[in-house]
């Protein structure tokens, strides 16, 4: 029953819950208002609201497939959220992988240029943890080859790249309102685009989506109410101690529902913009604090609001022991996605003997530090004290500063 910090969290307050309840009766009004505020905030012409980020991405892929029916490959980073390949399979397309730059979590752009081909339907840069991908290079390469660019901004809502909001730079972008994102209504996805042609095809796919039933809507609201209570560190020990909830575990979904956005979710997001601004400000401040205390104050990663602060420990066994001890102490430090995409059991036969070494380095070594607003000053000091002791527990440890965060390399481990 100790204080336990959730690895990722977004607040839902009493006013949000009241608006959510009102959404049962005023759902259409709240949905129209949400669409308008999203269009204004992102400066886009078209917004679509759906049941999840996975559903949003799947809808985009089906629309692009109808525009370029002879192209079947979707190029994604070899280390990313498992929901991304799930959506590609759901859309009936082929997964193509490109290795990452392990210092930026972006595509290895030399490999990227050699990987795209005449069968590439779209490339999907993912702004992992809120860190912007190099959109100039990606757009330049894809434009010359007639390849669509779909921005996976699920973890980067409100972030910018050279003054442009993430999600608006490519041909189409999507966000997630899942529980661990910058703002939340429990679940939900948003598609944004300025392309009339793409929007027309998305609209055709959207019209066939079912509306959520009232029973489903009420269950959604109840889940968010429970979440709003138990996400607090003083109570999070309870759900985190229930194995059947499988909190923090990553799954590849062979299938998932695709529905329209509910009025309850739109009501819960009545104050989304204020929550987003507060969330991103606090996340940036916390990332800067951790960076300063861990000797990373010069890293450009700290200039963006990080959903989580990623660290790499270049010793898989040591990473595991650090994680287990941090978990026991309730510090909210997590291991993120457990494998590179090519090692997911359900789809690994698709990739033959192809290897993605940098993706494996990340998967085997990553730890993430929470940056959300539930962290108290005491929590932050405790995390710093723990990491300082754990990461330099050996006299010969080597601490490096890089764009991706902290790297800890044992003398007997080669990079």
How are the secondary structure elements laid out?
Elements (H helix, E strand, L loop, with lengths): L13 H29 L3 E5 L2 H15 L5 E5 L5 H8 L3 E5 L10 H7 L4 E4 L11 H11 L2 E5 L7 E2 L2 E2 L6 E5 L12 E5 L2 H11 L7 H17 L6 H4 L22 H6 L3 H22 L14 E6 L2 H14 L27 H9 E5 L6 H15 L6 E5 L2 E5 L6
Parallel strand pairs: 2-3, 2-4, 4-5, 5-8, 10-13
Antiparallel strand pairs: 1-9, 6-7, 8-9, 10-11, 12-13
Helix pairs in contact: 1-7, 2-3, 2-6
- Just give the CATH class of the largest domain: Alpha Beta
* SSE-based structural type: alpha/beta
The CATH H-level superfamily of the largest domain is Type I PLP-dependent aspartate aminotransferase-like (Major domain)
Rg over alpha carbons: 21 Å
**N/C terminus separation:** 40 Å
Compute the number of strand runs. Answer: 13
Q: Residue ranges: pLDDT <50 for 5 or more in a row? A: 394-406, 408-415
The total tally of domains equals: 2
Summarize the amount of helix as a percent range.
Answer: 40-55%
Report the portion of residues in β strands: 5-15%
CATH topology of the largest domain: Aspartate Aminotransferase, domain 2
The coarse overall form would be: globular
Largest sheet properties: 7 strands, mixed
User: So, CATH architecture of the largest domain?
Assistant: 3-Layer(aba) Sandwich
Number of helical segments with 4 or more residues: 13
What does this protein structure show overall?
The protein has about 425 residues and is an alpha/beta fold. The chain has 2 domains: about 190 residues, Type I PLP-dependent aspartate aminotransferase-like (Major domain) (Aspartate Aminotransferase, domain 2); about 140 residues, Aspartate Aminotransferase, domain 1. The protein is about 40% helix and about 15% strand. The chain contains 13 helices and 13 strands. The strands form 3 sheets. Strands 1-9-8-5-4-2-3 form a 7-stranded mixed β-sheet, with helices on both faces. It is globular and about 55 Å long.
């Amino acid at each position: 029953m100790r204080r336990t910090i959730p690895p990722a969290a977004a607040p839902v307050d009493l006013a949000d819950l009241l608006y959510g309840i009102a959404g049962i009766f005023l759902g259409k009004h709240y949905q129209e208002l949400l669409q308008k505020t999203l269009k204004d905030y992102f400066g886009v012409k078209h917004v679509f609201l759906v049941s999840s980020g996975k559903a949003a991405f799947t809808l985009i892929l089906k629309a692009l497939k109808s525009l370029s029916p002879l192209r079947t490959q979707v190029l994604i980073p070899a280390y990313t959220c498992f929901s991304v390949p799930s959506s590609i399979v759901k859309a009936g397309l082929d997964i193509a992988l490109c290795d990452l730059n392990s210092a930026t979590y972006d595509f290895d752009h030399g490999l990227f240029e050699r990987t795209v081909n005449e069968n590439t339907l779209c490339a999907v840069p993912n702004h992992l943890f809120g860190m912007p991908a190099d959109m100039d290079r990606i757009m330049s390469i894809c434009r010359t080859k007639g390849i669509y660019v779909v921005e996976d901004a699920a973890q980067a809502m409100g972030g910018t790249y050279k003054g442009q909001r993430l999600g608006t730079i490519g041909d189409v972008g999507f966000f997630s309102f899942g529980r661990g994102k910058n703002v939340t209504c429990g679940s939900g996805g948003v598609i944004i685009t300025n392309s009339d042609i793409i929007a027309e095809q998305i609209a055709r796919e959207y019209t066939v989506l079912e509306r959520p039933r009232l029973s489903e809507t009420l269950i959604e609201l109840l889940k968010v109410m429970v979440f709003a209570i138990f996400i607090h560190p003083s109570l999070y020990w309870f759900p985190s101690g229930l194995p059947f909830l499988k909190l923090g575990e990553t799954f590849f979904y062979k299938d998932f529902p695709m529905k329209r956005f509910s009025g309850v979710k739109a009501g819960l997001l009545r104050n989304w913009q204020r929550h987003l601004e507060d969330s991103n400000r606090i996340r940036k401040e916390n990332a800067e604090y951790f960076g300063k205390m861990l000797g990373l104050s010069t890293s450009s990663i700290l200039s963006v609001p990080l959903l989580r602060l990623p660290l790499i420990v270049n010793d898989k066994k040591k990473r595991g022991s650090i994680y287990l001890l941090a978990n026991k102490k309730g510090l909210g430090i997590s291991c993120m996605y457990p494998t590179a995409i090519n090692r997911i059991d359900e789809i690994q036969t698709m990739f033959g003997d192809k290897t993605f070494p940098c993706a494996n380095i990340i998967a085997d070594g990553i730890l993430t530090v929470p940056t959300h607003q539930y962290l108290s000053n005491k929590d932050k000091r405790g995390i710093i004290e723990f990491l300082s002791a754990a990461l330099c527990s050996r006299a010969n440890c080597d601490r490096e500063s890089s764009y991706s965060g902290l790297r800890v390399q044992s003398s007997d481990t080669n990079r």
